[in-house]
Amino acid sequence: MANGIYVAVSGSIARLDQLDVLANDLANAKTPGFKHDTVTFESIRADLAEAVDAGEVEPEALVDKDFVQSTDTHARLSQGALQRTNNPLDIGLMGNGFLRVATDRGERLTRNGRLMVGRDGMLRTLRGHAVLDNRGRTIRLPPAITPEIAGDGTIRNDGRAVAKLGVTAVRPEARLLKDREGLFTPEPPPAGGAPPAKAANAWEVMQGYLEQSNSSPVKLMTELIEVQRNFEALHQVISTSSEMDRTATRLTG
């Protein structure tokens, strides 16, 4: 096997990871409150001792060979644009606040403020997750009312406060885990360390608005095409190298 193929294979795998992330970001470019992901790469020196022992790679050929791998995928928490909907059950969050919701996997956070009132009177997301108040309890609204939601999340009916949205402030540099539904897990404390410092409450609830995805479809499509071309070029290197190995084997066999 040609020495350069190791570099091409590692690059192909890393680019494949990036393609998956970009495709998911593009698919959710119109999802309210969606936060696009970024893939982090790092250059490493692979341990190819077995390949060297087998005579597949010359030791001196690895002196200037760097390999790449994807090491982390995390969401960018930057603000998305707010779009006016005039629906009283739509809320847009400005700043660093995330809405608390209950799922069968525990409490999660979301910026998707498209809400509804279920038949049981419970305030829910469109996916059916119960919205929590500032004390971690579910919210039930009186029937047939048009709620008034203040900037601090207080829900009023005819001027009387009936509940307050549970909004958690998140540090801009936080690395939140995102699940398959686009919901975030509250930031866990570091292993063996103290909990992360609380973020300042720099948020505001905007009734009748929805925050749009913070990703740009045009930018994502351009990046997707570029990464796809890079992946195809690396794949061609692998194919060419394999064909050269087969040719060498036939000539020396």
Folded structure, characterized:
- This protein folds into 2 domains: 111 residues, no CATH class; 130 residues, no CATH class.
- The protein contains 3 helices and 17 strands.
- Strands 5, 6, 9 and 13 form a 4-stranded antiparallel β-sheet that branches.
- The two termini are 15 Å apart.
- The N terminus is likely disordered.
- How large is the radius of gyration? 25 Å
Order of helices and strands: HEHEEEEEEEEEEEEEEEEH
Counting helices, strands and paired strands, the structural category is: alpha+beta
Q: Give the low-confidence spans.
A: 1-11
Number of separate strands: 17
Distance between the termini: 15 Å
What is the 3D shape?
Answer: elongated
Tally of separate helices: 3
Count of domain modules:
2
What's the main sheet like? 4 strands, antiparallel
Strand-residue proportion:
25-35%
The percentage helix is: 25-40%
Q: What average pLDDT do the residues reach?
A: 80
